[in-house]
Amino acid sequence: MDTDQPAPETHDRRGFFVRAIQATHAVIGATLAFVVGGAIIAPSFSRRETRWLHAGDVPRLRDDVPMPVTLRIARPDGASEVVERRVVYLVKSGSSVRALDSTCTHLGCRTKFNPDSMQIECPCHGGVYDISGRVIAGPPPTPLISIPTRLDGDRVMVQV
To answer: What is the pLDDT of residues 23-75, one digit of tens each?
Structure first.
């Protein structure tokens, strides 16, 4: 009788444990894929409500002079509420009003309007925008982000 061959019961036991470990790995992988996939895909299925906030009044705006306005945006976050502050520029041109995000498109620094040069400048890396938000100089790759606006009488409303 050959003693080098494992007994059939040992081989069956080893096969059982290999299959059990493989099944456990498969369950862990499927659970991880479900959780990560759900976290990535779920926000695209949620409805984002359109909110309009009062940002200013038309009579207070001067033609072609960006006016910085700080918006207070309250969002529910579980059991509490998170308040975000966002600065936008309101630019009146004739009878229309545009809103521009004040965040530089280069690295996200907060920009400032320089009334002497009539330009919007980023103090971090020298980005310069005109009053329409177009890049004039520096490293910003794109213009300032335009935010939808509407007029309700003399009130300027911005969409957040």
So the answer is: 999 999 999 998 888 878 877 666 667 789 999 999 999 999 999 999 998 88
pTM beyond 0.85: the answer is no
**132-137: Cβ within 8 A, 24+ apart:** 132/91, 132/98, 133/100, 135/105
Tokens of 2: 């050959």
Q: Is 156 helix (H, G, I), strand (E, B) or coil?
A: strand
Largest interatomic CA distance in the chain: 105
Q: Which two tokens stand for residue 8?
A: 């059939």
Residue 5 vs residues 10, 12, 16, 18: alpha-carbon distances, Å:
10, 13, 18, 19
- In the block, residue with structure tokens 């499927």: 30
Which residue would you say has higher pLDDT here, 54 or 10?
54
